[in-house]
Structure formats: C-alpha cells, structure tokens
Amino acid sequence: MNDSAPLPGPSGLPSHDESVAYVKELGKPTSAEVLRSARSAERVALQPRCGVGSHAQMMTLLRDLERHARPDVLSLTIDSHTRLKRFENARAVLLQNPADLNGYPLVTHGWERGRELNEAVSAPLEIRHGSPDARALFRTAVASGITSFEGGGISYNLPYSKAVPLAESLAAWQEVDALCGDLAERGLVVDRELFGTLTAVLVPPSISLAINVLEAVAAAREGVRCVSMAYPQGGHFEQDVAALRAIPALAARYLPDSVEVHAVLHEFMGVFPRERANAEDLILYGALVARLGGATKLITKTYLEAYGIPDTRANVDGLLLASRANSPLLGFITLDEDRIAEELEWILQEVAEIVDPVLAAPDLYAEIASAFAAGRLDIPFSASRHALSEIIPRRAPDGAIRYFATGSLPFSGHTRKRNARGLASAGAGSAGAGLGDMVKGLTADINYFLNVFGESPAPPPS
Amino acid sequence: MNDSAPLPGPSGLPSHDESVAYVKELGKPTSAEVLRSARSAERVALQPRCGVGSHAQMMTLLRDLERHARPDVLSLTIDSHTRLKRFENARAVLLQNPADLNGYPLVTHGWERGRELNEAVSAPLEIRHGSPDARALFRTAVASGITSFEGGGISYNLPYSKAVPLAESLAAWQEVDALCGDLAERGLVVDRELFGTLTAVLVPPSISLAINVLEAVAAAREGVRCVSMAYPQGGHFEQDVAALRAIPALAARYLPDSVEVHAVLHEFMGVFPRERANAEDLILYGALVARLGGATKLITKTYLEAYGIPDTRANVDGLLLASRANSPLLGFITLDEDRIAEELEWILQEVAEIVDPVLAAPDLYAEIASAFAAGRLDIPFSASRHALSEIIPRRAPDGAIRYFATGSLPFSGHTRKRNARGLASAGAGSAGAGLGDMVKGLTADINYFLNVFGESPAPPPS
Amino acid sequence: MHESETRTVILGVAASDSHVVANHLIAHALRAKGFHVVNLGTCTTVDEFAEAHAEYPWAEAVLVGSLNGHAYEDLQDLPAARARGLLGCPVVLGGNLSVGSRKDASHLDRLRALGVDVILSDPALLPATLDELRGSRSSGPVPVSSTAA
Amino acid sequence: MHESETRTVILGVAASDSHVVANHLIAHALRAKGFHVVNLGTCTTVDEFAEAHAEYPWAEAVLVGSLNGHAYEDLQDLPAARARGLLGCPVVLGGNLSVGSRKDASHLDRLRALGVDVILSDPALLPATLDELRGSRSSGPVPVSSTAA
Ligand code: B12
Ligand code: B12
User: Fold this and answer.
1) Is the ipTM of this structure higher than 0.95?
2) pTM score, two decimals?
C-alpha cells in the first residue's frame, strides 16, 4: 500500500485453478455476470476509465468511484510504458514520481497488489491497456482475479504501436485467448472485450465492426465464451444506433451460439468540447445512444476530456450524468426507424464485403496479416506501419461518417458509389482539390463537435 | 447587508418613473426580454426557486447560483408569513433566527435591500410568493427594480390561503395588474407569471390552463403586456407536451395580439423520489418535457426536493442537469405526434367548456367568484374554503391525469365520457368502492413516481 | 369528560402553512375508519385549534400538519394556550418540521418543549397512535414524548 | 551545413505515445506548404530522432508530438543525445504535455530544462515558427526558450 516501500519482486504466479478458486471466493460477480444481468434488466452497464501510477492512489480512486457513482464495472487503465512492455521505464517513473504515469503499472506492482485492488471494491475489474503483446499483463490480471480483459491482436496493435508485426501481436493474443479458453473450462468465463474503437477518430462503423468480427472469430476458436464488441460513438445518431444494433446481427452471422456477445459503446473519443456544459451535452448524448442502440455497456468520458486525465470528481460526475440514460422515464422517445434500418443494412453489407474474403482463407491469422499488408484490410490514421491507412473517412453534411477514399478495401461498386454519393453534397469529393484543402476538410470533420457547439478550434493549453 | 443591524424602517417608495429609470440604468435585461430571446433562440430559459430569510445570505445565494449555474432568471422566493401579510411575524423570526424563514421577507427587508440584491447579479429577478393580496409586496418589488412578478387573484389565493374571499384577492390582483399597465405605459414591461400550478398535485391540465386563461384575460384588460402561463408537469409525457403546446393556441384564441404569452413548465411538483439518482431522472425528464413541449421557461427542482429546501449546491446541480435539455444534440428525438395531437384536442375542448361560460358573463370578477362558489369553476385539493374541491383527479393506467369526478364543472357529456373511459380500465371508477379504497387509490396516484422507481411510500424523515 | 359513541379528532394545518393534500387524505382516511374529523384545514392558528377544542372538548387529540418548515414558529402560542388551560388533549404533529434538507434531532426537541406530545411521520400510524393515547389517557396523564418519528 | 532547395523537417511522436491523428494532419499540412517531412510516426525514441537527424543533417527542426502526458519521461535521453553532439537543430514540442487536467507552468519549465527549444500548442503556427527559427539561426545560436504556448 505504501509506494515508497520497495516494490514486490517478480513473484511466482498462482496456477489457473488457484486463481479460479480465488475468484469464486471473492464474493462478487464476474464481468460476464454483470453484463448478462445488465442485458436482462435492459439497462446499460456503466464503466469509467481510470488508472493512476501509485498503488495507494489507485485503491483510493477505485473506492471513491465506487462509493460515489456505483459503476457496474471498474477499470484498471494501464500506463503506456507497460503496454509497450517497457516495464523498466514504468518501474523507474513509479519510483521517481508515480503521478507522471498515465495508468497503473500492474505488472510492476504485481498480482498480490492486483488482488488488493480487486478486494477493495465490489464491482468486477477490467484491464484496459493497449498492448500488442499482453501475455505478461494477462497472466498478472488472472492471478489478480480480474475477470475482464480488453484488446486483440489487431485492435491493440495498430492503434497503439509503430512497428510490431501483426503476426507477432496476433500470436500473442491467440495465446491470451487460449488461456481464456482454458479458464472457461476450469469454470471461469473471462469477458474478452475487443477494442473496435481503434484510432477512435472518424472510424467508419464498418471498419470498427469488421475488426471486431475478425477478432471475435479468432477468440471464439480458442475457446473464449464471452466477447464484448466495442464501437466508438461517431457522432451521427442513426449511424451510431445502427452500428450498435449491427453487433447482435453480426454475432448471429459469424459466431457460434455458445459465445455470449455484448455491444459496448465508447462515448465520443475524438476532439471534445472544452466548455463543461458542452462536454456534458455530449456525454449525455453518448449515453442516450448507448441506451437507444441497445448497448450492454458504456465506457464513459468526463467534462475534462479535452484537458487530460480527469480527477475523481469529474469521473464521478461523468458516470452519474451517463446513468441518466438508464432512466425509466425515457419511454417517450421514438426514433427514425427507417433511417436506422437503412444505415444498418449498409453497415452489414460493408462489413460482409470486408470480412467474408478474410474468413474464407484457410489460415485466418496469416490472411489478416497479408490483407493488412495489401490494404484489403485497413484502418484510418494507423499508428502502425503495418496498416496502410489508405482509407480516408470524411463526414457527410449530416455528420455521418463515410468513406472518402476506400483504398484497397474489397468494396462492391454499389458500396463505393453509396459512400461517394453521401459525400458528394459536402463538396468533400472535389477530386481536383489539393492536399491543403483535404487537410482542412478533415480537420473540420475531426473538430465536428466544436463546430456544433460554436467553440473555436483552438487547442487546449498544453 | 448585516442582519443583526436594525432593519430599515418603512420608507417612502420611489415613484414609478423613478423605478422605470432605475431599471433602464441597471444595465441588465428585463425578464420579458430574457424570455423573448430564449424563445427566439429556441431554448428553454431556466430558473431556480430560491429564497432564504437573511439578506446577507440571500445575496450570497443569488451570487452563487449565478456563478455556478448561470440561470436565465433568478427567483426571490418569499417566506410564507409575508405572503399572508403576517409582516410582524416575519420581522420577529428574522430578528430571532432568519434561518427559520422559508423565504426572503422582502417587505420587511425593504426595497433598498431589494435593489442591492438586484444589483448583485446579472440575471433579472422574479418574485415568487403566494399572496392573495400582494399589493405591498408588488410595490416593494417594483421599487427594487424587479421585472417579473408571479401570481394571480385565483392562483395565489386558492392554493395558499384558507379564508380569503375571491372577490378580495381578485380586486387586489386587479390593482397589481393595473400597476403593471401603468408601468408598461411608462416603458417598463413587467412579466406577470400566472401560477397555473395551483395545488400542484394531480392537477388536470385543463384546470391549470383554464385558470391561466381567466387570469390572463383579466391581466390583459388592465394593460399587462407580458404573460407567462405556468403549468405543472403531471408526469405523462404526451399529456404534458400537449398542455404546453396548448398555451400558444389558447393565447391566440383568448388574448389580444398585443400581449406576449410564454409557456412555463414547473418540474414535477408532487411526491418526489428520495434517492438522488431517481430524483435526477425525474429532473432531466421534466427538462426534456419543457424542451420538447416548447416551453419558454422551466422552473427547476433539486434532488433534495423530497427532504426540504435545498442547499445551494443541490440547486446548482438541478439547474445544470436541466440545462442538458437545451443540448443541440437532441434533434434525433421524435415523438408520438398523433397521441400528442389527440391530447391537445381534448385539452383545448375541456378548457373551452370551462372558461367560455365564465368569459361570456358581463362582470368577469364577479362571475369567477360565483362560479367557484357554485363549483362551475373548481380546483382539486383546495387550501381555501372558497373552492369546493368537488373534482377528483385520478391517474389512468398509462399515468395520464383524468377526471374521476368532474363535480359541477360544465363539461359536455362527451368530455365526461372520455374521462371515464380513460379511467375505467384502472378500476378506479368502481362506483361501489368505499372511501377507504378511494383514498388508497388517490394515494397511489400521488405516489406515482415512487412506484415508477420502486421506492417505498415511506415519508421522508420529518 | 364527555364521551360520544364516535371518536372525534381535530385536524388542521399550521398557521402559516397552506399545504393541504396530506390534510385531505388524512381526513378521508380517518373518516373511512369511522372517526369524526373536525377538519380546520390550512393556515390554522393555535387559537383556532383551541377554539375548536373548546367546542369539541371530547376530541381525543389535535392533529397538526406542518409542511413548509415553519412548525416551530407556527406553534409559538401553544405554551400560552396550555397555560390558559386550553388544548388539554394530546397534540400530535406530523409533516416536514423544519426548514432545510438536512434535519437534525434538535428541531424535534424544541417542538416537544413547546408542548407537542407526539411527533409522527407516517399518517398510517395515526389510528394506532390514537388508540394508544386513549389507552394511556384513561390510565394516567398525557405521555409527554412518545414518538414514532 | 547542407541547404537543399526544399526545406526539411523531422516529425514524430514521443517514445511511449501512439496518438497519431495530429501527426498525420501536421505531416499533410506541412507537405501542402512544400516542406519535405521525414515522418517517424508514433513511439519514436530520442535515439531514433537523432538517427534521422544524422541522416538529414540539413533538417531545420525536429518536431515532436506528445499527447499521452509522458513528454517528460519520453524525452529523458535528450540531454545525453545533445551532450554527444546529436540533435543540433531546434527541438519543437507540442501536444498535451503532462498527465492530468489542471496544468501548471512548471511542467513546461522542466521540459525546457531537458533541452526542448520551443513549446507550441497550435500546429498552425508551425510554418511561422520554422521561419523564425531559420531567421534566428542564420543570425545566431538556437534560441533557448522562445515559446508560443
Ligand atoms: C405541492 C407542494 C406545494 C403546493 C401546495 C399546494 C397545497 N395547497 O397543498 C404549493 C405549490 C402551493 C406549495 C407552496 C409552497 N411550498 Co411546497 N411543496 C409541495 C410539494 C411539492 C408536495 C407536497 C405534497 O402535497 N405532497 C403530497 C402529500 C400527500 O404528502 P406530504 O405533504 O409530503 O405529507 C406527507 C407527510 O409529511 C405526512 N404528513 C403531512 N401532514 C401530516 C400531518 C400529520 C398529523 C401526520 C402524522 C403526518 C403528516 O404524511 C404525508 C404522506 O406521507 C412539497 C415537496 C415534495 N415533493 O414533497 C413541497 C414542499 C413541502 N414545499 C415547500 C415550501 C418551502 C413551500 C413554500 C413555503 C415555498 C415558498 N417559500 O414559496 C410555499 C408556501 C406554502 C405555504 N404558505 O405554506 C418545501 C418545505 C421546505 C422545508 N420544510 O424545508 C417543500 C418540502 C419543497 C422543498 N423541497 O423545498 N408547495
Ligand atoms: C483518439 C485518442 C486516443 C486513441 C489514439 C489513436 C491513435 N493511435 O491516434 C487511443 C484510443 C488509441 C488512445 C489511447 C490512449 N490515450 Co488517448 N486520446 C485520444 C483523444 C480522444 C483524441 C486525440 C486526437 O486524436 N485528437 C485529434 C487531434 C487532431 O488532436 P490532438 O491529438 O489533441 O492534437 C492537437 C494538439 O495537441 C496539437 N498537437 C498535437 N501534436 C502536436 C505536435 C506538435 C509539434 C505541435 C506543435 C502541436 C501538436 O495539435 C492538435 C490540433 O490542435 C484524446 C482526448 C481528446 N478528446 O482530445 C485522448 C487523450 C490524448 N489520451 C489520453 C490517454 C491518457 C491515452 C492513454 C495513455 C490511456 C491509457 N492510459 O490507456 C492511451 C495510450 C496511448 C499511448 N500509448 O500513448 C489522454 C492524455 C492524458 C493527459 N495528457 O493527461 C487524453 C487527453 C484523454 C484524457 N482526457 O484523458 N487515445
């Protein structure tokens, strides 16, 4: 509990059986159980992001969040040294100034402290990180009795690292998934949440969902039994609702019945308004999208999003505001169902065009790697060299995210035309426009909500 | 500013011209101007209830509310001694323990202190009180440069006092309205808000609106130029939205074009849930009703409603939560317009059946008094002997408020049948049921939102 | 002391207070249980309660509601009335008894000090309370601080 | 010192940081203005920046983005590199430069102490800043703490 005391040395991890027994004795539900009961109660489970470097402060943070906001699941957000396996850097910063860490270095702190955290609160914990190779972290998490683990061989590689080959991350995550399979056989279903949020900014729904499907299929093959597919709120209501509703449809089409699938929404993950009132409008909006789209879980934001990692109070306030979306008094809201149905059809069509050829290949992992190399699979704004980022998303005049450039995605002519049509009226498509104009247009699309709220695009103080 | 200093003695009030000039120099908009600009911006103006006995604390309260929540209009809620002209009691409590007052005794403090309050904030002030005879209070308010004044000869008598004859309160309010007419001619339009909220609990929309119409017609005849018609949220979405939308329709039908008319919603004024989360669901719901019903202004509640007068922080939180309803991101919400249109038609029909005979009489004031004496006009749960309270409201199974007993209201057979039909399925109408059953049913209807949220009907700690 | 067949109570809302919904419901409910309810309604001063008690000296209790937070101020005249030998029956008080959202116990103490005999929060407990008061009355003096709040 | 016709800059995101959207946009924008942008992308260590500078010694500046709050830790090796005579050009830093939502000025000071020459928040100011740096460079040593942040 005392950060200035020497850190526990690398210690032998308990066996899977011991960890499963530990979870059973913990006396709290697993993440999978919480998700299942939220779904059957038709409410959206809420989860904050939270992670600080110091163990003592992490305890306090979790306890305070639970006491004041009663989230359904709590996060251990891991620092970005740990996610890149720079454990020595994490240790160095931890010893020098834990407040400089942007997350909790679980591997460095060790699983005994993980159990301490787990025992401190009654909500189950999830590890949120961004590791292309999360094996050490996963083992520490299981030993800590933590029942939900985010990531995947694609979604925790391309947005998070520069040069890790996909083959490597896919293999590492295959191992994590297989460990989950083993745990499931021993009686512990770990919720494996896939990070369909990707690079978060202007992600076309069909890209997010296609990656979700590929990782889910891979996970299911290794014995994973509970999959959460996450989608980042894009900002266009009917498109976002359709994307969430696509998740059960995709699960039915691509996954065995034995796998439980949940839809997770990330409240808007792009440029956030700076004014508190505007940020709160956006937070509530995101929560309503989750509710009306039928998401099982919502990952919340705070009014400090534009500024930096929020303080506890802001995190609590974000959760409480989002929980208004679970109000029993919103039955009066009806939606433009025709428009949603149309978006849903398009999304399912695009996802099929992207994933069907990949799933038809004999070796899924090899095919994923070579499809990314060739651009048949792609994500916008890749942090990694191993995706081409030839696809360019833009917003249509109504705010929907469309493909401005489809790169080498194996899209039908019909899909391509529909996307072009959506953007044509935006003037975004003027083929003659120079790079400068394109960057200007993209920037405006990224700053979408600033425009909605009439905030200037000036960046927050560094 | 110092409550222990001697209170200012009764001092000569400035002339109307001096007060009008003072308001012009104040450098802030009048309430009428704020309402007009909210309406043209299509946003709901927000206003808290607030009033404490001590002058210094009232200053602080107004400033704190403004700083933290930027309401569009601020209230001076007056204590209930002052509203009954028990000025000596107000003075006694003020000197002994100002915290024992449930509002600000403006007459006792005097108009110079009223101006101090007015100058302390940039939002215009409204006096909210409940005085059957508000003449002294009105004169003090005008001298304080306060540009909005709530009440009316019916709505501030029947819910607030036991034995004041209507002829008396109507005459007192006729004087107040005439003073407003005089001020309007001198260039100051005072917003006269009518308290259609009445006894607040289970008020059938057509009763609230009928009283609004009668008071508005009376006010317009005396030269009042800006009328706010207030309606208490009943809890049924389509009915409440229809009631708000009825207000402009009634204004067009019954009032001259020269009178500006605004719709005001009171967030639910009945038994409030005790749990903070549930109370906040109800607060947000009320704010959404205001927005979607096109109200110009919303009077907010707080999560402490069930307990007592809220502290400043709770009041701020209530305003901030309600302000989410002004979000530009709610355009996705569509409503059951057919259902709303149906309710609207019913409401307009019922109001016409109530008010048309009264307005046809040669002497409006005399007719109002004798109609109440005969039950042709009536309100449920009257605090006054001068209304019969023969009408009994109940909730239909869908939560809508209907007439269980229409008393001596001059309703058509059609209206009576429609109301009975609405309730029939509730089993509320079983004519043979005893008084005990009726009270049980009424109590359940009053506790409606406790049931929605699954809270027990146990009363809050006294 | 006069004892009628039907039991009588005097009901009303405190002097500065116009909250009347609970008052209506309590009157209905007690009548449904067979009580004769003399309902003085809202804004009832201590003097009015005393007059009513003088008119119905067999009334078992005076039931006062107070919601607006002014209970203490509104019952200021109770000690004087009692000193004059008025209101000799138990005074039962219920509602929201002080201004503000966070209540401490002291505000109840000062009400008892004024002479309030019973402080109740749930009106459903009134019949049982009245029975109990009648029981203790026939056997001895008015209990001074029995409370269910 | 080699001066090519087209002006060259080295761009990248700090060592532990994968936030890349601004990086893409800045690269595009500078290219649209005619710059040759050597974009090292995300997760770029000080050593990698130094290697790139050794390869493009005529580069006018190294532009580092840092969003995840780890700027200080990620630039720990900058003094050592400078001591070895590497990265002789101005280092311009921008983004979200410390962990947390309430920033005080001290975190900028410690970055300057590491050898960061310019701290900028708005990337639109980059071209003007680069012009200014070139101007002051031809006339004297690298300015140590000009800042527009
Ligand atoms: C409706 C209402 C009004 C209506 C009343 C209409 C009428 N004539 O009845 C109107 C709008 C006129 C009104 C006005 C005011 N109100 Co008002 N009102 C309410 C409200 C919203 C509901 C009350 C109600 O009818 N409830 C339904 C009935 C059935 O329940 P109840 O009254 O709570 O009573 C229960 C118990 O208290 C108990 N009980 C009640 N009486 C008795 C008596 C006995 C003997 C017993 C045993 C039990 C008992 O049994 C009931 C059932 O559980 C409450 C807040 C709330 N949501 O509860 C505020 C509230 C009571 N009002 C309040 C105030 C301050 C006022 C004003 C003074 C405001 C002002 N300064 O302008 C005015 C002035 C009125 C006056 N002169 O007294 C405050 C009281 C604050 C405090 N104690 O700290 C409350 C709590 C609101 C708040 N949170 O601030 N109000
Ligand atoms: C999208 C996003 C992500 C994506 C990034 C995808 C990708 N590969 O790019 C994902 C989901 C992967 C992600 C992950 C993380 N993120 Co992040 N992320 C964001 C988010 C929501 C938007 C960033 C963005 O793309 N903005 C659009 C671009 C155009 O603007 P920008 O990056 O803000 O840059 C502007 C300025 O800073 C400046 N600028 C940027 N670079 C440069 C360079 C120079 C030279 C100059 C002059 C200017 C400049 O110009 C830009 C335009 O104004 C922000 C919060 C927000 N809403 O802003 C958080 C945010 C940056 N992330 C944050 C964190 C903590 C993380 C994580 C470390 C969380 C964790 N512990 O798990 C991880 C780890 C990533 C890592 N290893 O570094 C924090 C940083 C906290 C802090 N500094 O206190 C933020 C602020 C969120 C928050 N409020 O907590 N994130």
Assistant:
1) no
2) 0.93
